[in-house]
Amino acid sequence: MVDYNPMSVQSVKYRKKELELKSLLEITQAINENKPATVLLDIFKFTCLVHLNIKSLLLYMIQEERYDKMISHGLKNKVPEYFNLSDISYSKESGELKLEVPKDFSFSELESYLPVYHKEKLLAVLFLKKKSEEEELDLDFTQALANILVVALENKKFAKKQLEQERLKKEVEIASNVQRMLLPATLPNSTRLAAKVTYVPHSTVGGDYYDLIQKTEDEVFFCIADVSGKGMPAALLMSNFQAALRTLLRSTSDLKMVVEQLNYTIFENTKGERFITFFLGYYNYKNRELVYVNAGHNPPVLCWEGENRTEFLGAGTTILGAFEALPFIELGKRSYLKGFTIHLYTDGLTESINKKEEEFGDQRFHQFIRSKNCMAPKRFHDLFFQEMKDFSSGAEQRDDITLLTIRFQ
């Protein structure tokens, strides 16, 4: 004859409920205190192993495009570190889980599984094995606890992603402000010297740079550059580049020395991982001489007023920042120049496409220049960008576009 003590059974039930509530309180308190994911996972694991008659457990949770192993305890068989989204399917109607895993792995020792869903999305799967056959496993409470854990971890991921997006947004805003400060606020517009720029960044922060510096009444430096990369790194590199350029030009008019020093500065800062294509020109009104160096940039187009001819300014060297020392350098010179225009541009202009995926191209650009020989810069830009607009017909812009036109008299 077996003694039956209903009060003892009732006490066990109350004790079990007390432990469950304590576990629930502990994990919710940790969530409210914004404890790290590792702490939440440890609390969940401890609760399962100590209070819920669970001997072995295995938790996989969705991470981007796959399910990663988050908890593994008490397993003899080898299980995968992760499995792909396409490897698993679960039917809510039948409750059937299908999981494709390589032959080296096995889930056979685990008796139960609990899927965790949120808005029709399978967030996690918890595999379980009981300690004792005599005791029942409270699957409802385990499911509720797993739901709380997984949703909390998902919320932490979402909050982290939002913070990262805010950080990137702030970074882009700072980079955009830095870039605006680098570019000249105004350009000369007189009979003697007139300039017009059109700058259309692909995104909030572009990789193009242009400048025009009147060192004296008779000396004019002008340049255009395309910095590799985008965002804050490109903006910081451009800032450093502009500061170095302006410092050098204050002390010398030797373009060879300027370009060699700029190359050294860029290489030292980036160790050859970033580079800049660059064109630097210098015009002296006294001797009517143009000196320039082209460091791997699209050759600017020089056209003479009253003459139906153009020339490409390609002499120079290779891109800046790729080598510790430039392998060669050649200065371009044109003498007795008076009444001429130079068009400087970046490759985003000629590589613009239309809806047929056709590029605007160098030839089309050069033909347009010849047809509008030495026109006033502002008028030239108005007509040219209308031409580009008609060509692109609303096609998406893929790169920064910069056109700097300077007319010397």
From TrEMBL:
One of its Pfam families is SpoIIE
Annotated PPM-type phosphatase domain residues: 190-408
Q: Which InterPro entries does this chain map to?
A: Bact_Sigma-Reg, PPM-type-like_dom_sf, PPM-type_phosphatase-like_dom
Keywords in UniProt for this one?
Hydrolase
Q: Which GO terms describe its molecular function?
A: phosphatase activity
Give the top-rank taxon of the lineage listed in the UniProt record for this protein.
Bacteria
Q: Which SUPFAM superfamilies match?
A: GAF domain-like (SSF55781), PP2C-like (SSF81606)
* Protein name, entry field: Sigma-B regulation protein RsbU (Phosphoserine phosphatase)
Give the lineage: Bacteria, Pseudomonadati, Bacteroidota, Cytophagia, Cytophagales
